[in-house]
Every structure is written in structure tokens, then in C-alpha cells.
Design brief:
This is Collagenase-like protein with putative collagen-binding domain. Pfam families: Apiosidase, Collagen_bind_2. InterPro entries: Apiosidase-like_cat_dom, Collagen-bd_put, GH. The chain has 12 helices and 20 strands. Strands 8-7-6-5-4-12 form a 6-stranded parallel sheet. It is globular. About 25% of the residues lie in helices and about 20% in strands. By secondary structure, the chain is an alpha/beta fold. The protein folds into 2 domains: about 350 residues, TIM Barrel; about 90 residues, Sandwich (Immunoglobulin-like), CATH 2.60.40. α9 runs parallel beside α10.
């Protein structure tokens, strides 16, 4: 048996569900950490051998969810299964391919978070109130018994482009497959909660913190945001706060932060690229604020870019076969393993334990704490002070956790101290982010 298939698959612990505190996900009683990757064009771009290579790579790096879409655009000539919607005739070859890819993921123990159609297909009116239920019924007939399916409505659009179509899609998915979780992938720098938080079919929120810097609030581009939606820049943790501010609590996750090796702002090819230290920052900031996990992305992987002779969409420079090895994708598992080393689902964002005071933007120190542990993410490697009163009467060990390597480096016994002022050593590289880990022994 290959390495990627060893061990229990998550659904063998129980059906994927929202945790009792309504903030996280569980398989039965087993905590489930959403570590996603955006592979939007997986079904359209990769053959089965390529799909296996990609999926096994992600499985062995600790990923748990692959986000993809069945119909990305309105195909010419009825390709990609679109005849099922328009003429009640399916494309057997395409759907057979989708079946096999999903089975590969199942064998590897990976969930597939699937969009029936990308948002622009709804925005164009091609998928609409008159045919969306028929399409979902077809999908349910094909996939309702697959254990590794999560459904996503939307697809990089505001819910307002067709509220009733999306509501009908969500309701039908939940009616026909009540045990499957349903979310909504929204437009850049928005969250599903802005339109659908109170919908019974929406099990969890998803936000797209997007690909813009703090200074790129308005670029005069098609994807500028309406003022009413707010603009948090790179502070993706603020979306978690907003989603957790509603009277009815639902889990939330950053389903599309800045991708590794995507142009900053997407549109201007003179701009620099987001790098591995940026994707780490988004991950730690949102998870330490209480997100149920995190989704990684890469410029070449989401579109499975293959032509090195031209620059790909969003500035993609490296073909997907090389990009699958980008280091940022390797670093995500360290966050997952850090969270799973404690009872993180009973933890909380704990900024009040930061005695040195909170600062803005890159100077932010994100603090997450629970019974017997305290984590503090320091993006710039600056000095800060934390309270240790929660450890009163306990022996306390302190480590610097390296989010690049996943290595814990012990540096102090803090037993009996009420506070600690700390500063990590420098890597003497472009990046210098660290996590303070304090544990009761």
C-alpha cells in the first residue's frame, strides 16, 4: 500500500459535521482541520495520471480538502457536461473522468469541496432558477453516496448576482444530500455571510481575503469592492471576527487568500509576487483568530498552467508540475500539526494576553490560547510580552516554533512567572516569522 493510503480516512471516524461549539468541524467526535488547496481546473486540465500525482502530493503534505469546480465556464459545443443542464443529456466521457478523479481523492483520504458551476456561469444567466435544481438532482444522483464530498455554491461572485439561483442551489443540495456540508465561495474580499449567513443550508462561512495589498483598495479594475462590503487589506483575521460576530455562530475559513506566486493585485504585471512568507502569514493570522482551518493557493496550480512559453493568468510563471513543489505548499502542514497537537477546538483568540499592546498590519502579534497552551505568531520577529497567569501552579516550557521547518526550539522554563518578554532570533533571510509556544508540562 502506498504511503498516501496509510491510516484511517477521516470519514471513517464519522460523518463530517459542525462541532458542538459551532466554530469548527469534526468527523464524529474527531476534530477535522480544513487544510485546503485551490485546484479549480483539476477536472478540465489534468488526465488521470496527472491528477493522481497532484492529489498524492497534496495528501502527503497534509492537505485534507481539495477545492475544485465541475463547470468553470459555459463551454462551446456543450462540453464539460453542460448538455445535462441545457438538454438533459450528459457527456459520459467527462463525468466518467470526474468520477475517477474523485475516487482517487477518496482512496487517498481527501475531501473534495466541489462547485457545481463557477459563479460567472450563474452571473451570465446560463445556470438559473429554471435549471439549477435539475442540475443538482443530476449531481446528487451521481455523488450522494460518495463519502468525501463537500459542496460549495458560488464561485468568485457576489451572492447578489442571483440570490434566488444560489438559494435554490443550496437548498437542493441540502435537501438531496442532508449529510453533506454546504458552503459558499464568494467574491474577493467578501464573505458568504454577507448574503447567506441565516440560510439553513449554509453549514459554514467562507471568505475570500483575496490577492491585494493594504494599499490596493481600489485599482480601477473589475474586481474592486463596493464600499459597503469593507476593505480589510491583508488583515484576513478581520473576516473571521466579522463572521463570528453574528448571533448565530457558524464556522468560517479563508477559502482564497493571496496565492503563492500570484501577482500582488492580480492585474498589473509590473507588481511583485506573493511569496511563501505571505501565505504563511495569512494562514496563521486567520487560524489563530478562530478559523476552522485554512486554504492555500498557487498561481499555477489553480489553473494547472502548462505552457512555459507565455506568462499564465494572474502572472503564473512556473508550470504546475514545478509549482506543485513550491515551498509555501510544504509549510502549511506545520500549522495543521501545531493545532492538532493541542485541543484547539476548545481554544480561543486571546489578544488580551498580549501585555505589550497590539500593533497594526505586519507588526500584529496573533495570540491563540487554550487549556495548557499559548501560541503567539510574530510575523516580523519583533519583541513582545505575554501574560502567563493562565499557567499558575503549572510547570511551563517555552519554545520557538519555526513555521518554515515545523521544528520546536526550546529556550526557557517559565514556571512561576506571571509574564514573559520574548524575541525570536533572526533567520537572516527575507522572512523572519516565528510562533511562541508555551505549554504546561
Amino acid at each position: 500500500m502506498m504511503k498516501g493510503e496509510v491510516g484511517m480516512k477521516p470519514w471513517e471516524h464519522g460523518v463530517l459535521r459542525v462541532s458542538d461549539n459551532q466554530k469548527y468541524l469534526c468527523n464524529g467526535e474527531q476534530p477535522f482541520f480544513w487544510l485546503g488547496d485551490t485546484a479549480w481546473m483539476l477536472f478540465q486540465q489534468l488526465d488521470l495520471e496527472e491528477a493522481y500525482v497532484y492529489l498524492r502530493n497534496r495528501k502527503e503534505k497534509g492537505y485534507t480538502v481539495i477545492q475544485s469546480v465541475f463547470v468553470h465556464s459555459r463551454p462551446q459545443g456543450g462540453d464539460g457536461g453542460w448538455k445535462q443542464i441545457e438538454k438533459d443529456v450528459s457527456d459520459p466521457a467527462y463525468w466518467d473522468h470526474c468520477d475517477k478523479v474523485i475516487k482517487i481523492a477518496e482512496d487517498l483520504g481527501l475531501y473534495m469541496a466541489l462547485l457545481p458551476a463557477w459563479g460567472k456561469v450563474v452571473a451570465s444567466g446560463t445556470l438559473n432558477e429554471s435549471n439549477v435544481e435539475q442540475y443538482v438532482e443530476y449531481l446528487a444522483g451521481r455523488y450522494q453516496n460518495r463519502p468525501n464530498i463537500i459542496w460549495l455554491v458560488g464561485g468568485d461572485v457576489r451572492g447578489s448576482v442571483s440570490l434566488e439561483t444560489f438559494r435554490a442551489e443550496g437548498r437542493t443540495l441540502k435537501r438531496l444530500m442532508p449529510e453533506k456540508l454546504v458552503g459558499y465561495h464568494p467574491f474577493g474580499r467578501t464573505s458568504s455571510s454577507l448574503w447567506f449567513h441565516e440560510e439553513e443550508w449554509l453549514d459554514f462561512n467562507m471568505f475570500q481575503s483575496g490577492h491585494r495589498r493594504y494599499d490596493q483598495a481600489s485599482l480601477g479594475a473589475w474586481d474592486d469592492n463596493a464600499e459597503k462590503e469593507g476593505f480589510f487589506g491583508e488583515d484576513n483575521w478581520k473576516y473571521v471576527d466579522r463572521d463570528h460576530s453574528y448571533p448565530v455562530m457558524k464556522p468560517t475559513v479563508d477559502g482564497e487568500p493571496s496565492y503563492e506566486w500570484v501577482l500582488q493585485g492580480l492585474h498589473d504585471y509590473s507588481q511583485p509576487y506573493w511569496r511563501e512568507w505571505d501565505v504563511r502569514r495569512y494562514a496563521y493570522w486567520s487560524v489563530f483568530q478562530g478559523a476552522m482551518g485554512h486554504t492555500y493557493g498557487d498561481a499555477a496550480i489553480f489553473q494547472f498552467y502548462k505552457n512555459p512559453r507565455v506568462i499564465g493568468g494572474c502572472g503564473a510563471r512556473y508550470v504546475w508540475q514545478d509549482s506543485v513543489h513550491h515551498v509555501g505548499s510544504e509549510h502549511m502542514k506545520h500549522l495543521k500539526e501545531l493545532m492538532e497537537s493541542v485541543d484547539y477546538q476548545s481554544g480561543r483568540p486571546a489578544e488580551e494576553l498580549l501585555l505589550s499592546g497590539q500593533k497594526e498590519k505586519y507588526h500584529r502579534i496573533s495570540v491563540f490560547a487554550g487549556d495548557g497552551f499559548l501560541f503567539a505568531y510574530d510575523y516580523l520577529g519583533e519583541a513582545f510580552t505575554v501574560s502567563l497567569k493562565q499557567f499558575a501552579g503549572k510547570k511551563v516550557a517555552a519554545y520557538w516554533f519555526d513555521p518554515v521547518s515545523g521544528v520546536y526550539s526550546y529556550f526557557a522554563d517559565l514556571t512561576g512567572k506571571e509574564s514573559a518578554k520574548v524575541k525570536p532570533s533572526s533567520r537572516f533571510t527575507e522572512d523572519n516569522d516565528w510562533v511562541l509556544v508555551c505549554r504546561a508540562e
